[in-house]
Amino acid sequence: MAKLVRLAGIAVFAGGLAACEPVAERPAEPPAQAAYWAGPVEHEAASFTVLASGTAIGAVQVTPQENGYAIFYEFRNNGRGPTFNETVVLDGDGLPTHWVIEGTTTFGNAVDEVFRLEDGAAFWRDTTGENEMEVAGPALYAPQNSSPYSLAITARALMAADGNRLAAIPGGEVRTEEMDRLTVSNGDETREITSWALSGLGLNPTYFLMDGEAFFGVISPSFAILAEGFEGEDERLRELAAEYGASRFEAIQARVAHEFDGPVRVRNVRVFDPLTEALGEPVSVVVEGNRIAAIDPLDMPSRAGEVEIDGAGGSLLPGLFEMHAHMGEASAFLNIAAGVTSARDMGNNNEVLEGLIANIEAGRVAGPRLYRSAFIEGRSPFNSNSGVVVESEEEAVQAVHDYADRGGFHQIKIYNSMRPEWIPAVIAAARERGLRVTGHIPAFTNADAMIEAGYDEIVHINQLMLGWVLDADEDTRTLLRLTALQRLPVLDLDSANVQATIDAMVERGVAIDPTFAIHEQLLLSRNGEVFAGAVDYVDHLPVNAQRGARSAMSAIGSPEEDEAYRGAFEQIRQMLAMMRERGIAMVPGTDLGGSFTYHRELELYQLIGMEPAEIIGWASHGMAEFLGVENELGRIEPGYLADFFLVPGDPTQDLRDIKTIALVVADGRVYFPSEIYPEFGIRPFTDVPAMRLVE
Questions:
Q1: Mean pLDDT confidence for 640-663
Q2: pLDDT (0 to 100) of residue 37
Q3: Is 146 helix (H, G, I), strand (E, B) or coil?
Q4: What's the rounded mean pLDDT across residues 157-169?
Q5: Cα–Cα dist 457/440, whole Å
Q6: Are residues 7 and 225 in contact, defined by beta-carbon separation less than 8 angstroms?
Q7: Torsion-angle region of residue 125: left (phi > 0), alpha (psi -120 to 50) or beta?
Q8: Inter-residue contact 472 to 495 (CB < 8 Å)
């Protein structure tokens, strides 16, 4: 459904909350002119190209005005993307005094954001509602949703500020650090530019490029936004962003990963057995290298040379499997902190993912064991730019063979723009090469046809259910595949066509990857309200992440739409309960990055009758069985790989306890989430367990 693109709003997260005081009177509209603004940078480009893995997908257009800038930003990737129109007014220090942003987010939520600053009084309205605070001294507004050109405004203000840092509104601090001096060329023109890292507005730095005071672009491993005419530098600059990220995460790994010369004994823990779905009596678990060496009685003394960690009577659970990931370096780290030690990647930039896997396996960065899907998409005006994009049946079949020859993929994943008539040949090639088949339901067909063609698994519950409410000519390569869920409340789940599809799945053993949590966010999140999945942890997040947790994913235009979306979620819940009763295999995955949202994914299955202990066993040993690795993963037993985590409470009784993790062991390395979270601006949930070297 969603490979979420966070470039829609560069300032997605900000660190720390500033003290807010009520403003006696809301500032009036700002003056038409900012008398001291120095004006635009003379040699700055007016247009910037948005690229996804080298493919142009949109643009940023910048128009200087008498008192600031007008900006238009839009891209379309995978049939959707943001559209923003912005107007920003600047003061003599280049700080915004008035900012208006209108448009829609990637999933269609309306953006009507306004900021005003006058006489030390700040007022802003975003999707969470209206806010105000007193501001003492220079401060920079961090928009909730903005174009990448907000980085240019931010960069110039920081260059002029003491120590390249400023207080941020609504809270925290924004700062920048010079990374490299670079030479770029388009064949006719050469530029000397500087790469910078901007921190304080996200879980990770944003890497951007400046030509002196002129904005040149933004870079990440998979996306880039570059001055028009310099698109040919895309690959080199994205590789540079990957190097910056790798260096950052290697440094974090050096600080938070604990590797010991001798055995590690986790003393006084109750081990969860996924086969009996129960916790045992208190014991000690001993790890040597990356394997579990022994499970000893609690009264067995520690041996000299062991590192002993006090489990304090907590629950020790096998590592979890996130079955719908699109893994990056930040999400890899945060999934480890969440007890997710294995993940199935469902589509990515292949080269970027290969580099991440190599770094994880070498221990340079933290991350789950990754099981790769061979992503294949058809060329269209709406195609995704992950994996391999093909233009014919022959190319699609060849892509299967190329992936098989490359190795390291356990399945192919078919995507929205693949032509339905190509699918039988693609599946035949996958069968020939020993690869299973999963995917979306391509446009202009339905689940029945894909089950008949040989799918082993269907990705996203909406992809299955839309086939019962859409007309044959309706195009699901657009946001229709989300907005049409409003039609579900009138669907009779006991009708013949619905039951025929379910019968076919049962008969052929077709599994479902529902991505329950993303459907909850899509259908039930509302502007100004903390969505249910974030209630237990929202206060631990940076301030702009809290803003996101109080924002709708979809556009809710009327009370009737509100009711229809709520009814759609109930239909999804009932459908999943029916599928469970029929014995259809399900896998837990989020398509939201995992971590905290993966915990919510698991919690939601209680709504279809699953018990906490059953869910934990299913998400660990059950998924190890699904992937065929149950002889090494999914249990805490001597000889098994050392992938497990410790929670102080008893999640077999209250699944919410799974969020408060004190210890994670991944491939034998020891991590304390309370050491990881501050690296990302997140307030920890537990203390670090007591640890000692036994003499």
A1: 97
A2: 58
A3: coil
A4: 92
A5: 9
A6: yes
A7: beta
A8: no
Q: pTM of the full predicted structure?
A: 0.90
| Whole-angstrom distance, CA of residue 623 vs CA of residue 618 | 6
Q: Which residues contact 384 (CB under 8 A, 6 or more apart)?
A: 3, 77, 78, 347, 375, 377, 415, 416, 417
Local structure of residue 466 (DSSP, 8 states): G
Distance between terminal CA atoms of the chain?
54
Q: CA–CA separation, 455 vs 438, rounded Å?
A: 6
Of 20, 27, 153, nearest to 96 by C-alpha is 153
Q: Which pair of structure tokens corresponds to residue 590?
A: 């989020």
Could you write out the DSSP letters of every residue in 141-195?
A: E--SS--TTHHHHHHHHHHTSGGGEEEEESSSEEEEEEEEEEEEE-SS-EEEEEE
Lookup result for tokens 């902190």 = 337
Q: Token match 């698991």: residue?
A: 602
Cβ pair 189, 45 in contact under 8 A = no
Do 357 and 328 touch, CB atoms closer than 8 A? Answer: no
Q: CA 191, CA 467: separation in Å to the nearest integer? A: 52
Name which of 248, 239, 206, 194 is nearest 221 in CA terms: 239
Rounded CA gap, 514 and 620, in Å? Answer: 17
- Determine the Cα–Cα distance for residues 121 and 128; give it in Å rounded to an integer: 19
Which tens digits make up the pLDDT trace of 125-134? 999 999 999 9
pLDDT bin (cut points 50, 70, 90) of residue 358 is very high
Calpha distance 381→413 (Å, rounded): 20
Buried b (16+ CB within 10 A) or exposed e, 290-308: eebbebeeeeeebeeebbb
Is 19 in a helix, a strand, or coil?
coil
CA atoms lying within 13 Å on the CB side of residue 415: 30
Given a cut of 50, whether residue 60 has pLDDT beyond it is yes
Instruction: Identify whether the C-beta of residue 620 lies closer than 8 Å to the C-beta of residue 321.
Output: yes
**pLDDT tier for residue 3 given thresholds of 50, 70 and 90:** very low
Q: How many whole angstroms separate alpha carbon 384 and alpha carbon 375?
A: 10
* Residue in the structure block whose two tokens are 């894909």: 450
Q: Rounded CA gap, 530 and 520, in Å? A: 12
Q: How far apart are CA 574 and CA 585, in angstroms?
A: 16
Domains and CATH numbers, the chain: 11-254 (no CATH), 373-439 (3.40.50.2300)
DSSP class of residue 540 equals G
Q: Is pLDDT at 154 greater than 60 in this prediction?
A: yes
- Residue 544: its pLDDT value, please? 78
* Burial class for 380, CB neighbours closer than 10 Å (0-12, 13-18, 19+): middle
Helix (H, G, I), strand (E, B) or coil at 526: coil
615-630 as b/e: b if 16+ CB within 10 A = bbbbbbbbbbebbebb
Query: How many Å apart are CA 215 and CA 201, to the nearest integer?
Result: 18
* Amino acid, single-letter form, for residue 513: D
- Strands 340-345 and 110-118, by their bridges, are unpaired
DSSP letter at 464 equals H
Burial of 487 (0-12, 13-18, 19+ CB in 10 A): middle
Q: So what's the pLDDT on residue 572?
A: 98
CB 667 within 8 Å of CB 645: no
Pairing, β 644-647 against β 663-666: antiparallel
3-state secondary structure of 64: strand
The token pair at 52 is: 């996804």
In the DSSP assignment, the letter for residue 360 is H
